[in-house]
Amino acid sequence: MIKFTYSSLLIICLCILTQCDRNEYPSGKRYYDAYCGNCHMEDGKGLSKLIPSLEKSQYLLNEQDELPCIIKKGIKSMVPDSSSEVQLSMPAHPKLSEIEILNICNYINNSWGNQQAPMFLIDIENKLNICD
User: 25-129: which CATH number, 3.40.50.150, 3.30.360.10, 1.10.760.10, 2.60.40.1180?
Assistant: First the structure.
């Protein structure tokens, strides 16, 4: 009986502890950390005028159709930041698969105050097919 109680308690504790991480996109977070986090930082705030913030980003909100292309092919242009414009030169990640890009997009779109509907693989495929 005591063994059963300890086992039950352990299972309940593990269930509770795993619920503490409310991130709905754990794969996206892993890919973000590996490919994006060095520049945009773990908290999505970027590096002042050098790298724009992704936190509550109006640019991100307005450029949903371009996001997969930006991740795959990079970008070099002026980009609005929270208070001004910054010259953005983001490297391409041509080796990322469509699924990896999907995970990154969904993670970014639902982190740091961003709230976007989830993208699906077909969305990423279609958006990547119309990249310049």
Answer: 1.10.760.10
Q: Give the position of tokens 């790298």.
A: 51
Q: Is the pTM of this model over 0.90?
A: no
Q: Which two tokens stand for residue 131?
A: 């990249």
44 touches 38 (CB < 8 A):
no
Q: Are 80 and 89 in contact (CB under 8 A)?
A: no
CA distance 74 to 13: 43
Alpha-carbon distance of 52 to 79, in angstroms, equals 8
User: What's the sign of the alpha-carbon dihedral 4, 7, 10, 16?
Assistant: negative
Using alpha carbons, select from 10, 39, 31, 50 the residue that is nearest to residue 108.
31
Condensed to tens digits (0 to 9), the pLDDT of residues 80-91 reads 655 666 667 889
**Alpha-carbon radius of gyration of the chain:** 18
Closest CA to 66 of 108, 26, 33: 108
